[in-house]
Write a structure and sequence with these properties.
Elements (H helix, E strand, L loop, with lengths): L1 E2 L2 E5 L5 E6 L2 E7 L10 E9 L2 E6 L2 E7 L7 E5 L5 E10 L7 E3 L9 E2 L14 E4 L2 E4 L11 E6 L7 E9 L7 E4 L2 E6 L2 E6 L34 E10 L2 E6 L2 E7 L8 E6 L5 E9 L17 E4 L2 E5 L6 E10 L1
Antiparallel strand pairs: 1-2, 2-3, 3-4, 5-6, 5-26, 6-7, 8-25, 9-26, 10-23, 11-14, 12-13, 13-23, 14-22, 15-19, 15-23, 16-17, 16-22, 17-18, 19-20, 20-21, 24-25
Amino acid sequence: MSYAGTALKLIHLRDRFELSHYGRNAVHVNFAPTLPDLGDWYDYRLVVQDGSCISYMHGQKVHEQRIPANPDPWLAFHSVAAFGGGVRNLKITGKPEIPERINLSEHLDLGEWIPDYYTESIDVENASWRKQEQEIVGRKIADTAGSNRQSLLKYHRPLLEDGEIEYDFYYEPGTTQVHPALDRLTFLLEPAGVRIHWLTDAQFDRTGLAPDNVFDEPARRRGPKTLPLKERDWNHVKLALKGDVASLALNGVEIYERPLEATNQRIFGLFHYASDTDVRVRTSRIAGTGRGHCRRWRNRSCGAVGLAGAISELGFRISELSFVRHTLRQFV
């Protein structure tokens, strides 16, 4: 189970758990006394109070940590692909708040972002992606010009609801550039207009597409023939989702509108060719979380649950005196 970006998983020996952050920085933490034989199911309770997040297993306190004033608000349940798992008797009490807007770049690191699509590094020295003061920075790889090295940084939760994601990016032709992506669909922001690029799976790709594939969709373009890109300056992008349609605006001007394929997982990402450019992004935020209409999950309880791979996430910011209690099951 994960809240505020930190996941806690009981180890089968019952005297330790694994602590990780969206699959990164995993460590084993011992506790005492050892829990009794739990069988298939065990009771778990999470309490958020006075700026602390406290975990209990079978009534025994096993972990406590401080959380920031505006933590990553998603409550998540994660099952490793090689195993099965289950949750039952889930209850949320107190006064959980569904945030209308989330700042995606206010924290000191890139804790809410995932670089695993192309197995890139993050938040370490000379990383592919890192936080630098108030900016999200993507690194250009030296001596690889023209090799079309794809690079992607993903926000960890799909954009299930109708809403908007906005950010500022610095643009210097041939040097600094970044493009918005939804799942494998990438909107290339080029001076002559938006073009489409489909992410490939690098050495595992089976689509037959080249890593520099580009497609034109003239009927989807909106606004002026030339994009209102400001060179050697900051530009503002707004990507809006309404139902199954994505629209794109640049510096306040609508430039593209396109329906999404039914297979699109609506995972937002920042894309660039790391062989050719670096990336500078600031003031990233998402609006409309939780309260909008989930078109792709229209039969689910939308302000709450969506599925992303093996992760089920609930969109609440848990406020003081709230707690989550449920029973977990592990199959080994």
